[in-house]
Every structure is written in structure tokens, then in C-alpha cells.
Design brief:
Elements lengths: L7 E2 L5 E6 L5 E7 L2 E8 L5 E7 L2 E9 L5 E7 L2 E9 L5 E6 L7
Antiparallel strand pairs: 1-2, 2-3, 3-4, 4-5, 5-6, 6-7, 7-8, 8-9
Amino acid sequence: MKADLSSCVFPSETGHGVLYYNDGRVFSGHFQDDDPVTGTLTFPDGSQYCGELYNQARHGFGTYYFNDGSTYEGMSCMNVFEGQGRMTWPDGGWYEGEWLVRSSPA
């Protein structure tokens, strides 16, 4: 899925820039062939993701800062926490280890 570049400000289809989405998200970072690939994605609720993207999704290593003060640092696969990662909650609790996505039974 290609980004709607009509609201994008950057020097060329590859380089640094800012993309304003119609739903209120803002991406600031590096683009490769019109697609955001690494940078900061800010959501309308104030949460942020800093890291790698693929096909407009959190994919690869990054840190997600939730608006409640929780953070997740680690691997994601197509917007899902998967692989090694650490979740820290505002009360000081944390989980560090393997995050797995299980398929639903057919």
C-alpha cells in the first residue's frame, strides 16, 4: 500500500520528510520509494512509535510509547508485537521475553 503523498513534505520520493495522514497520524522520518521506512509515527491519542516500518505497518525493531505511560521496546511484525521485546507499565511492572502470535483455530 502506497502512502497518499498529497499531504507529504519531503525533497524527493527517497529522503527525509513528514507525512500527515487523513486520520490524524503524523510520520516524520526517512522515506524509500515513497514509503515511510524508519522514523517516528505519532497517533492522534498522543501515543508514538519510533522505529522501522514496512508497508505502512510497524515492522522490525522499534519502541512504542503508549499514552498511558507504558512502553514496548522490541520486535513487531505487521503492527503486532512478535519476537523479542520488553513491555514496561507505569507501575514499574514489566515483561521481557518472546512475544508470540498464535493462529486462531479453524
